[in-house]
Design goal:
42% of the residues lie in helices and 11% in strands. With 322 residues, it is α/β, with parallel strands linked by helices. It has one domain: Rossmann fold. A five-stranded parallel beta sheet has the order 5-6-4-7-8, with helices on both faces. Strands 1-2-3 form a three-stranded antiparallel beta sheet, with no helix packed on it. β5, α5 and β6 form a beta-alpha-beta unit. Pfam families: Sulfotransfer_1 (PF00685).
Length: 322
C-alpha cells in the first residue's frame, strides 16, 4: 500500500480520503484494498501489515464476520491446549472465559505488546481479507508465516446472523433486514464483499494446502468430530490412539457446542470491545436464513455470489462432509 493510515500525522488524511459508507451500523465503513473495513480498525489493519511479526508456529484463524468465528476459536483453543487444559476439567478456560478472551484478534490488539508477549505456539484470529494480510504471513517461503485456518459460511446465513448481531448492538434503533440485505448484496458489509473475502482464502488454500486449511461451517455442523480431527492434524497436534479411545475428541466437541458455550458463566456477562459476550451466541445452525429472507431475496443473493465466484472453482452449494 502507498501510505499506512497508521503513520503519525497521516491517519486523518489517508482515512478521510477513502470511500465512505455510513449506512452499515454500528460503524462507519471505509473501502480499503477493495473491501469495506470498519473505520475504527483501519489504523490497526495497516499497522498489522507493517509491524506484525509472524512465527512459524503461529495458527491464524480467519473468517468473514458471523461465519462461525466464535465456534472455531473455541474448537481450536480446546484442541491445541488439550494437554494443559483437559476438556473435562471443571477449571477449563472456556468454562469461565469467552472464546474471544482465549484467542486474540490480530487487528484488535496492540501489535507490540499483547500479541508479541504470547508464548508459542500462538493461536490468533482475524477478519482481514487474505489480500490485506501482512506480506510475511502470505509469502510462499516454506511456511515461516505460520498456518491459516479459514471458515466460510453460506452468505445468506452470514447476512442474517450479522443483522441480528447488529440489531442487538443498536438496541432500539431501527435497522430492517431489507436494509441490511440491499447493502450486503452491494458488498457493503464489515469486511465485504463476503464472496471476495471467501474466494481469497479459497484460492490460497488451493495454492498452499499445507499452510491454509479451508473449512465450511455447514460441513462442521454435520461432522464436528471429523472436522476437529482435521483441524488437529493441520495444526500439528493430531490425536493419539489413547486420546481417541478416551473420548477426548468428543469431549472437545461437547465443551465447544453452542448450547454449552451459551450457558458458560463467562458468556452470560462481560463484553468484547463494547459488544456483550452473550451477543456472540444465537442459534448456530445452517439454513436459518429461510426464516428471514424471502425466496426472491435468497435467489438474488445466490446469483450475485455465483457470478462473483465464476471461474474460481468454488461454490457455496452444499457439500458432503468427508
Amino acid at each position: 500500500m502507498a501510505a499506512s493510515p497508521h503513520d503519525d500525522g497521516m491517519a486523518e488524511i489517508v482515512i478521510s480520503s477513502l470511500p465512505l459508507e455510513t449506512r452499515c451500523p454500528p460503524f462507519l465503513l471505509r473501502q480499503y484494498g477493495g473491501f469495506w473495513i470498519p473505520e475504527p480498525l483501519l489504523p490497526v489493519v495497516a499497522a498489522a501489515q507493517t509491524r506484525f511479526k509472524p512465527r512459524p508456529s503461529d495458527v491464524l484463524l480467519a473468517s468473514f464476520p458471523k461465519s462461525g468465528t466464535t465456534w472455531l476459536k473455541a474448537l481450536a483453543f480446546a484442541t491445541l491446549n488439550r494437554v494443559k487444559h483437559p476438556p473435562r476439567h471443571p477449571g477449563h478456560p472456556l468454562r469461565r472465559c469467552n472464546p474471544h478472551d482465549c484467542v486474540k484478534y490480530l487487528e484488535w490488539d496492540d501489535q507490540g505488546d499483547v500479541l508479541e508477549a504470547l508464548p508459542s505456539p500462538r493461536l490468533l484470529a482475524t477478519h482481514i481479507p487474505y489480500t490485506l494480510l501482512p506480506a510475511r504471513v502470505t509469502a510462499v517461503d516454506g511456511g515461516s508465516g505460520g498456518r491459516i485456518v479459514y471458515i466460510c459460511r453460506d452468505p445468506k446465513d452470514a447476512l442474517v446472523s450479522m443483522w441480528f448481531f447488529t440489531k442487538k448492538k443498536l438496541a432500539d434503533e431501527a435497522y430492517t433486514i431489507e436494509e441490511a440485505f440491499e447493502l450486503f448484496c452491494d458488498g457493503r458489509a464489515f469486511y465485504g464483499p463476503q464472496w471476495h473475502h471467501v474466494v481469497g482464502y479459497w484460492e490460497a488454500s488451493r495454492r498452499r494446502p499445507e499452510e491454509v486449511l479451508f473449512l465450511r461451517y455447514e460441513d462442521m455442523l454435520r461432522d464436528p468430530a471429523g472436522n476437529v480431527r482435521k483441524l488437529a492434524e493441520f495444526m500439528g497436534c493430531g490425536f493419539s490412539g489413547e486420546e481417541e479411545a478416551a473420548g477426548v475428541v468428543q469431549d472437545i466437541v461437547e465443551i465447544c457446542s453452542m448450547d454449552a458455550l451459551k450457558n458458560m458463566e463467562g458468556n452470560k456477562s462481560g463484553s468484547q470491545r463494547n459488544f456483550r459476550n452473550e451477543t456472540f451466541f444465537r442459534k448456530g445452525v445452517a439454513g436459518d436464513w429461510s426464516n428471514h429472507l424471502t425466496p426472491a431475496m435468497a435467489e438474488r443473493l445466490d446469483k450475485i455470489a455465483e457470478e462473483a465466484l465464476r471461474g474460481s472453482g468454488f461454490t457455496f452449494a452444499a457439500t458432503e462432509s468427508t
